[in-house]
Amino acid sequence: MTKRDYSLVGESTRIAIETGLASAEWYHTDVPRKAMKELMRRSDGPAIRDTLIWIVAILASAAGIVWFWGTWWVVPFLFVYGVLYGSSSDSRWHECSHGTAFRTRWMNDVVYQIASFMLMRNPVQWRWSHARHHTDTIIVGRDAEIAVMRPPDLLKAALAFTGILDFRYSLPILVRQAFGRLSDDEKSYIPEMEQGKAVVAARWHIAIYIATIALALYTRSWLPLVLIGLPRLYGTWHMVTTGLLQHIGLADNVVDHRLNTRTVYMNPISRFIYWNMNYHVEHHMFPMVPYHALPRLHELIKHDLPQPNPSMWHAYREVWPILLRQLKYEDYYLKRELPPTARPYRGEFHKVDMSAAAE
Amino acid sequence: MADWVEACAVGDVDEEDVIRFDHGGRTFAIYRSPDDEFFATDGYCTHEKAHLADGLVMDDIIECPKHNGRFNYKTGAAKGAPVCVNLKTYPVKIEAGKVMVDIG
């Protein structure tokens, strides 16, 4: 059984580089250039519409929290505000980091900075970590964004839904970075010329949190912190519910997104919060395609992809027994069936041990 | 020293688009701008080994298909993270309906 080393400067990193898994060539479904150009086409319209809805909903729910503060009527407003702040910011951060949400660059940058702050993510560090995630998706020792490592820590995975762990790690990381210290892992994917910017960004975030704490102390109220910072705790659950499904239980160390990434059909509200990232195989295969075009891309290439999970509930029911088996045998994973119309998986292409898969 | 080679016919590249051109073990990207001018750069992104010809041309910008890194394909200038190193550009001329690139 392979023992995985998830450090980005350790033994798995060395193996990934030596075996050609790092920065490898990945499988892509054939899409005619004309169709792909049409799908990649940028426009400001959909993202401006969705961002206006997003901002109005955030401000309205925040106003409700302020208005009903101290009564039980505040609870539904906290629920809505928390999800908008602590969960939907993740998909805005993500799409704007790719620069695909808006055609106009500065609009992507503004929303990216705001969403990064809401998530307690260093905007410089995470831009680079996400680039690495796309280069080396679920390549152990290379990918900085593997949510559930093997063998899975189920307690940690469960606590992720509460936001406690993210909060526990994100804030100290920002503090450390604000003091000018980047970890070896961070230095492995942030180019030297960008590392100073990461420190400056962390200092801005920390300054805003200090100001918020000062306001809370001055007003002797939790309200400022409930509006800024704490939603990262009480509103994260939707981000985790949708985001965990992206890769969990599937293969690692392969170079075919059909083997390590999952597409799940979701309800319209979750798709708005998640900005269509439920079409995750499609996104990884073609990250140039904006979120609003992913359903069209899905229709175009689904003949070459595993059948999507029909719901989040279905996906979690599929994942749970895989995680339990990984506790004893961490090489175990779910190999998803391809439809007869798909090009087969190429074992020799990604050197994956198919015998480890059960189905 | 100039080394002009024929890359493609003018009609091979759509307006505001890019195609790949391989020559002598090297790969290049040939662009046609919205105002019908032609340009050439190295074919690979300077960030990771991805063919820019699979990317998206918008006005003066080529966006890499892998990480959405952006370059001005007319000057080669990198336009921000995740690309930090400029793209090499090559002189282009049109002769008898052919796009000629000086790869020297």
UniProtKB/TrEMBL annotation, chain A:
This entry's Gene Ontology molecular function terms read: oxidoreductase activity, acting on paired donors, with oxidation of a pair of donors resulting in the reduction of molecular oxygen to two molecules of water
**Segment forming the signal sequence:** none
Q: Does the keyword Iron-sulfur apply?
A: no
| Gene Ontology CC, one term | membrane
Where the record annotates domain Fatty acid desaturase, the positions are 71-315
Q: Which UniProt keywords apply?
A: Membrane, Transmembrane, Transmembrane helix
Membrane-crossing ranges are 51-75
Q: Does the keyword Metal-binding apply?
A: no
Instruction: List GO BP terms, alphabetically.
Output: lipid biosynthetic process
Name of the protein in its database record:
Fatty acid desaturase
Report the source organism. Answer: Mesorhizobium qingshengii
From TrEMBL, chain B:
Tell me which InterPro entries the record gives.
MocE_2FeS (IPR012747), Rieske_2Fe-2S (IPR017941), Rieske_2Fe-2S_sf (IPR036922)
Can you give the residue ranges of the Rieske domain? 5-101
Q: Which GO terms describe its molecular function?
A: 2 iron, 2 sulfur cluster binding; dioxygenase activity; metal ion binding
Q: Which Pfam families match?
A: Rieske (PF00355)
The residues forming a coiled coil are none
**Cofactor dependency:** [2Fe-2S] cluster
Keyword vocabulary terms for this entry: 2Fe-2S, Dioxygenase, Iron, Iron-sulfur, Metal-binding, Oxidoreductase
Q: Is Disulfide bond a UniProt keyword of this protein?
A: no
What PANTHER family does the annotation carry? FERREDOXIN-RELATED, RIESKE DOMAIN-CONTAINING PROTEIN
Family statement:
Belongs to the bacterial ring-hydroxylating dioxygenase ferredoxin component family.
Q: What is this protein called?
A: 3-phenylpropionate/trans-cinnamate dioxygenase ferredoxin subunit
Species annotation: Mesorhizobium qingshengii
